[in-house]
């Protein structure tokens, strides 16, 4: 049994007409029929362009947003619609690390209080007292425990992200959703935080949902990678399969666009034309067809269903074909 | 010998503050020819953006203290009058900023802002300027430019806005284009389009480009020369191939080993640069990088004692390090190259 099983997850945001009566119009389908599983100690990378619904998916899985449809099973328990005390208990097991190390820490609270907040909220008295536990956590993530009484503004971006990580691991959760945890950091600092996340995973058998737009970082940290476009799953496979033998034209286009730090390596680039369509009026059939280089009439008529083409490699495309784009 | 198109010589930009002098740029020298691209790489606070603002003369009227020379076509931009400089901005040199939303005026349409950019330099009728604007918007890949020209910046998506700003920068065919992290806020697919666009326009107009970025992948894709900055100083300056195939400064090594790769799985762990970038008020004495450098034992002298000179380690390849060049070459081959 997997730690997390997500089946046909949907998150629609209602929209209203800009008229007097403000009737409800077509919802924005931020996440539409997304399914995946995640084991303990495993990292699932969630990639896609901005606006593809990857952050919404992460937040809905944690129940920070209420799903519109589908099912979320965590540790054998259906958590799709739990409320109140049951939901609060779930929060001990699932945590989040946010992108913005400036916005996700309260500037008026000292770091000690920020990291201790989970204990307070959950009414847990850790062995050895809160202060000692917090200082141990600070030490674990590479912060000086003597800085217990300092405020967030006294720390650099990388250190702040460490504070966010310390807070997330305080209750020894089983699953952490990391939403672009390193994209705001400088390259040399980025590697420090990535290594920290990897070490913690190994020590505590943590499962990560790692949301990022940087495909190189995702390749480094993930065991499996899921590619999203306009709220839908395009392709999922284990890391090496996805990067070495991508089958979905969107995955191929995405990878071919990433610049590689090696001069004069003439890679073929699959250029996507146009911008992302609105998730309020997604194209009929395959949502990617308007920008797909190989789309046909069939793609407009029929929605391609996610199909397992080889063990663990699921592709939602009518014309899947392996193509080396690196 | 003819002078290069752009020559920056011993540029210093210092900001006096209550806490001390911020030495944002401290003795920077480089050359750039027409039709070539220089990539400037560095972390936040390394002085790369301040350099570009200094070239554009955008520190004027602030408390910044500038010294050195910025020679564009043999004219020292630090000495020309405000009036002359205004005539050069846009036409002689132009800049693309990282965040197009804050670089554009929200109350004016894209068309009005681009038309103004033309009319500042040329006495042309509004109608003909407008035609030129529509043509330019089409060239940078904005679909439907006749309709788009009358829209406001907020009606454009991030990628479109960045294109509109590139159109604004290019509308007077500038000879020098400075791009400050032009693709950092964009998705990779859009980034690829923008880089292609810049390359295409360079082929067409033969402009010189300064590309400021922290992404070594972007540099590999677009630059001819690479300049690595750290703590306000250039630590390594070389041709593109040298920068990636025989980088010669421990900081450049750190940047390369800390980056995950798309095209292959690296050795299990990334090798980050320990510690944090320096404060520009209290730049560490001697080599600014020495507190974070894992190789300083090989220098043979105290790295904190003196600032290393920028010296040639290979032909046309300068670096600023106390470790002997031969030793550095050995360290790179033995310890760094296998990790890349």
Which properties best describe this structure?
heterodimer; A: 326 residues; alpha/beta; 4-stranded antiparallel β-sheet; 30% helix; B: 340 residues; Rossmann fold; 8-stranded mixed β-sheet; 12 helices; 12 strands; 34% helix
List the helices and strands and how they pair.
The complex is a heterodimer of chains A (326) and B (340).
Chain A: E1 4-16, E2 24-38, E3 43-47, H1 54-61, E4 69-74, E5 77-78, H2 84-93, E6 94-97, H3 111-122, H4 130-140, H5 157-169, E7 175-179, H6 187-204, E8 207-211, H7 215-221, E9 224-229, E10 232-238, H8 239-244, H9 249-256, H10 297-301, E11 307-310, E12 313-315
Chain B: E1 6-17, E2 20-32, E3 37-41, H1 48-56, E4 65-72, E5 75-76, H2 82-88, E6 93-96, H3 100-103, H4 110-121, H5 126-139, H6 145-148, H7 158-170, E7 176-180, H8 188-205, E8 208-213, H9 216-222, E9 225-230, E10 233-239, H10 240-245, H11 250-258, E11 310-314, E12 317-320, H12 325-336
Parallel strand pairs in B: 3-8, 3-9, 6-7, 7-8
Antiparallel strand pairs in B: 1-2, 1-4, 4-5, 9-10, 10-12, 11-12
Helix pairs in contact in B: 4-5, 5-7
Tell me about this structure:
The complex is a heterodimer of chains A (326) and B (340). Chain A has 326 residues and is of the alpha/beta class. Chain A has a domain at 235-326. Helix content of chain A is 30%, strand content 23%. Chain A is built from ten helices and twelve strands. Chain A has helices spanning 54-61, 84-93, 111-122, 130-140, 157-169, 187-204, 215-221, 239-244, 249-256, 297-301; strands spanning 4-16, 24-38, 43-47, 69-74, 77-78, 94-97, 175-179, 207-211, 224-229, 232-238, 307-310, 313-315. An eight-stranded mixed beta sheet of chain A has the order 6-7-8-3-9-10-12-11, sandwiched between helices. Chain A has a four-stranded antiparallel beta sheet with strand order 2-1-4-5. The radius of gyration of chain A is 21 Å and the shape is globular. The model of chain A has no long low-confidence stretch (mean pLDDT 92). By secondary structure, chain B is of the alpha/beta class. Chain B has one domain (1-92, 174-340): P-loop containing nucleotide triphosphate hydrolases (Rossmann fold), CATH 3.40.50.300. Chain B contains twelve helices and twelve strands. Chain B has an eight-stranded mixed beta sheet with strand order 6-7-8-3-9-10-12-11, with helices on both faces. In chain B, β7 (176-180), α8 and β8 form a beta-alpha-beta unit. In chain B, α4 crosses α5 (126-139) and α5 (126-139) crosses α7 (158-170). The longest helix of chain B has 18 residues, at 188-205. Chain B is globular. The mean pLDDT of chain B is 90.
């Amino acid at each position: 049994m997997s730690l997390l099983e997500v089946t046909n997850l949907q998150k629609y945001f209602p929209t209203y007409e800009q008229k007097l009566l403000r009737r409800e119009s077509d919802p924005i389908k931020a996440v539409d029929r997304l399914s995946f599983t995640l084991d303990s100690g495993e990292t699932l990378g969630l990639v896609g362009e901005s606006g593809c619904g990857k952050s919404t998916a992460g937040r809905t899985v944690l129940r920070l947003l209420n799903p519109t449809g589908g099912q979320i099973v965590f540790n054998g328990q259906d958590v799709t619609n739990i409320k109140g005390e049951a939901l609060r208990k779930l929060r001990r097991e699932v945590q989040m690390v946010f992108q913005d190390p400036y916005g996700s820490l309260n500037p008026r609270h000292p770091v000690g209080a920020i990291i201790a907040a989970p204990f307070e909220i959950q009414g847990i008295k850790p062995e050895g007292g809160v202060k000692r536990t917090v200082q141990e956590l600070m030490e674990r993530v590479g912060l000086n425990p003597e800085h217990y009484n300092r405020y967030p503004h006294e720390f650099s971006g990388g250190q702040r992200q460490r504070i966010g990580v310390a807070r997330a691991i305080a209750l020894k959760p089983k699953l952490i959703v990391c939403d672009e945890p390193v994209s705001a950091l400088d390259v040399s600092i980025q590697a420090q935080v990535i290594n920290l996340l990897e070490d913690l995973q190994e020590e505590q058998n943590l499962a990560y949902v790692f949301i990022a737009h940087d495909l190189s970082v995702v390749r480094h940290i993930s065991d499996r990678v899921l590619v999203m476009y306009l709220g839908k799953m395009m392709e999922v496979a284990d890391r090496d399969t996805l990067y070495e033998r991508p089958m979905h034209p969107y995955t191929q286009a995405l990878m071919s666009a990433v610049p590689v730090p090696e001069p004069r390596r003439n890679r073929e680039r699959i250029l996507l034309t146009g911008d992302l369509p609105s998730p309020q009026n997604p194209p009929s059939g395959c949502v990617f067809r308007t920008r797909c280089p190989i789309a046909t009439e069939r793609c407009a008529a029929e929605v391609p269903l996610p199909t397992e083409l080889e063990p663990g490699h699921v592709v939602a495309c009518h014309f899947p074909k392996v193509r080396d784009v690196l | 010998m003819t002078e290069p198109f752009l020559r920056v010589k011993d540029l210093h930009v210092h900001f006096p503050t209550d806490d001390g002098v911020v030495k944002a740029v401290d003795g920077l020298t480089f050359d750039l020819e027409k039709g070539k691209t220089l990539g400037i790489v560095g972390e936040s606070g390394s002085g790369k953006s301040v350099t570009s603002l200094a070239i554009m003369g955008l520190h004027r009227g602030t408390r910044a203290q500038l010294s050195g020379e910025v020679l564009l076509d043999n004219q020292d931009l630090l000495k020309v009058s405000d009036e002359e400089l205004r005539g050069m901005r846009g036409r002689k040199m132009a800049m693309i900023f990282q965040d197009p939303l804050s670089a554009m005026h929200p109350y004016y349409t894209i068309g009005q802002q681009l038309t103004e950019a033309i009319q500042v330099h040329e006495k042309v009728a509004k109608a003909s300027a407008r035609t030129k604007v529509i043509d330019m918007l089409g060239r940078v890949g904005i679909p439907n430019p006749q309709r788009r020209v009358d829209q406001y910046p907020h009606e454009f998506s991030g990628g479109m806005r960045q294109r509109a700003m590139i159109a604004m920068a290019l509308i007077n065919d500038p000879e020098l284009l400075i791009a400050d992290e032009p693709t950092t806020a964009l998705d990779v697919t859009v980034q690829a389009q923008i880089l292609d666009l810049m390359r295409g326009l360079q082929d067409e107009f033969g402009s010189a480009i300064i590309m400021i970025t922290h992404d070594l992948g972007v540099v590999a894709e677009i630059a001819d020369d690479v300049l690595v900055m750290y703590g306000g100083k250039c630590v390594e300056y070389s041709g593109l191939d040298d920068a990636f195939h025989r980088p010669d400064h421990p900081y450049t090594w750190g940047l390369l080993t800390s980056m995950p790769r798309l095209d292959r799985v690296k050795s299990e762990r990334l090798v980050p640069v320990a510690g944090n970038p320096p404060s520009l008020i209290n730049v560490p004495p001697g080599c600014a990088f020495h507190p974070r450098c894992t190789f300083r034992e090989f220098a043979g002298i105290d790295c904190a004692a003196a600032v290393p000179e920028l010296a040639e380690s290979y032909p046309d390849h300068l670096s600023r390090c106390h470790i002997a060049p031969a030793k550095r070459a050995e360290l790179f081959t033995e310890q760094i190259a296998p990790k890349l």
